[in-house]
Write a structure and sequence with these properties.
mainly alpha; single chain
């Protein structure tokens, strides 16, 4: 095929990508996918870890501490985003990305050696610092490196690939659960194996990432900035100019709705599944119970992320056809309805295979929108800063979501004497918390449509 036809507007978006473009897209996607792999390992291993580190704790206490440690992790995430976003604008996206991946991989491994819930929480906070930097840096790296016509599709694919990392965590849980059931792994130690395994791929990724180059667009802008005195990675500039201040604050609210919906409710689907599965495991030998539960928890994760992958790809296509704002409106409404219905009515094991993928499709489609939309709101000198601020500072608010869910469940479960009553309290708490997703409709009403517009210079 001639170069003319390859570059025609009707040609597939990937035809415009050079070998260097592909390397950037693959490395950024790998960093984010492994980041998500580590996030989901935490979600899957959270309850077993707390149960092991707090012998004798009841289910309500375990859920409450699960909320505490998740809030601490998300707060670290937010802090890391605030720190590393501006650093990426100042010293380079590629260099800073390598630092953040190294940080979260090492501390994920250290989580396996925790001796109590307090040092476990410390490791999770530091892991969160590294995790928080990856998204904004990766998105800015892709947006500044790839051709404009390829950007939307590439960022959608980048976000969809994160589902593969999440599926990997689910598959790992299934394997660990199987080994537990066969008593190859000692019950109560499965979470330690998962954190050690989670650290290894990311460490390998750091070695490969050392070959990444900074985007030409960023390098030129940085050199011009040194001559003209324009400041890069500055919160003073971000909030000092009304155009960028409005985008930052409304973009933050947009992300808060999705992030709280996911991290305040969605990531607690393993706890819901465990409550349902416990009723199905009567008669199973006691030594096999933990392994069986872990297998179903891993299967829940896999099904949710299969839905996630297709949801993100669907949002990417919708954003190209109908625009960013219309796509967000539909996605927020669908996310709220699907999340509330699943947490309220999931009762049978077959529901995990049918309804969990639907929730994953609706709830996580939003995150493709964040990857596509946020870099279109900020100029090169503030792109990593602005994206990281929107996506991560909202996590300080989001950190209250798991805490609120745990406290709300404890209040609703007060006086409950049966597992069924405690599960019902958890369901009601999750449905109430999921209403935060509707806040995204308010933010998107005041944000601009950016379809077919060039990135701000």
């Amino acid at each position: 095929m001639s170069s003319t036809s390859a570059n025609a507007p009707t040609a597939p978006w990937w035809r415009e990508l050079s070998r260097e473009h592909w390397f950037v897209l693959i490395m950024a996607s790998l960093a984010w996918a492994l980041d998500c792999f580590d996030q989901q390992i935490f979600n899957l291993a959270r309850s077993p870890a707390i149960k092991d580190l707090m012998p004798g704790a009841g289910s309500t206490e375990i859920t409450k501490w699960g909320g505490y440690t998740t809030s601490i992790f998300v707060a670290g995430w937010a802090t890391g985003g605030l720190i590393f976003g501006p650093i990426g604008d100042r010293i380079g996206r590629a260099r800073t990305l390598m630092i953040t991946v190294l940080m979260y991989s090492i501390c994920t491994g250290l989580s396996a050696f925790a001796q109590n819930v307090y040092d476990f929480a410390i490791y999770r906070f530091i892991t969160g610092l590294g995790v928080g930097g990856v998204f904004g840096l990766s998105v800015a790296l892709i947006a500044d490196s790839l051709p404009d016509r390829s950007r939307t599709s590439a960022l959608g694919v980048f976000q969809a690939i994160s589902a593969i990392g999440n599926i990997g965590a689910g598959v790992l849980a299934i394997v660990i659960g199987y080994l537990q059931t066969n008593q190859t792994i000692k019950p109560g130690s499965e979470w330690r194996y998962m954190f050690v395994i989670g650290a290894l791929p990311a460490l390998l990724c750091v070695l490969i990432q050392s070959r990444l180059k900074e985007p030409e667009k960023w390098r030129k802008a940085r050199e011009e900035g040194r001559v003209t005195g324009v400041r890069f990675g500055s919160y003073a500039v971000l909030f000092g100019e009304s155009q960028w201040r409005k985008a930052a604050l409304l973009g933050m609210v947009l992300c808060v709705a999705g992030v709280v919906g996911l991290w305040g409710v969605g990531v607690f689907s393993p706890e819901l599944v465990n409550g349902v599965i416990n009723r199905q495991l009567t008669g199973v030998p006691a030594e096999q119970l933990a392994g069986k539960r872990f297998i179903w928890t891993g299967l829940n994760m896999v099904m949710q992320q299969i839905g996630c992958f297709f949801g993100m790809m669907a949002f990417t296509r919708a954003a190209q056809l109908f625009g960013r704002k219309k796509s967000f409106i539909v996605a927020f409404i669908a996310a709220f309805i699907s999340t509330a219905l699943v947490f309220k009515y999931l009762n049978e094991t077959w529901h995990i295979l049918v309804f969990i993928p639907i929730m994953g499709f609706c709830q996580l489609a939003l995150f493709a929108g964040f990857a596509i939309y946020l870099p279109e709101l900020f100029p090169t000198r503030l792109r990593s800063t602005g994206v990281s601020f929107c996506y991560n500072v909202g996590r300080f608010v989001a950190a209250s979501g798991p805490f609120t869910l745990g406290v709300l469940q404890a209040k609703l479960a007060a006086g409950a004497t049966s597992p069924e009553a405690r599960l019902e309290a958890f369901r009601n708490a999750a449905v109430i918390t999921s209403s935060v997703l509707l806040i995204g409709l308010i933010a998107i009403a005041f944000l601009p449509e950016t379809k077919n517009r060039p990135l701000p210079a």
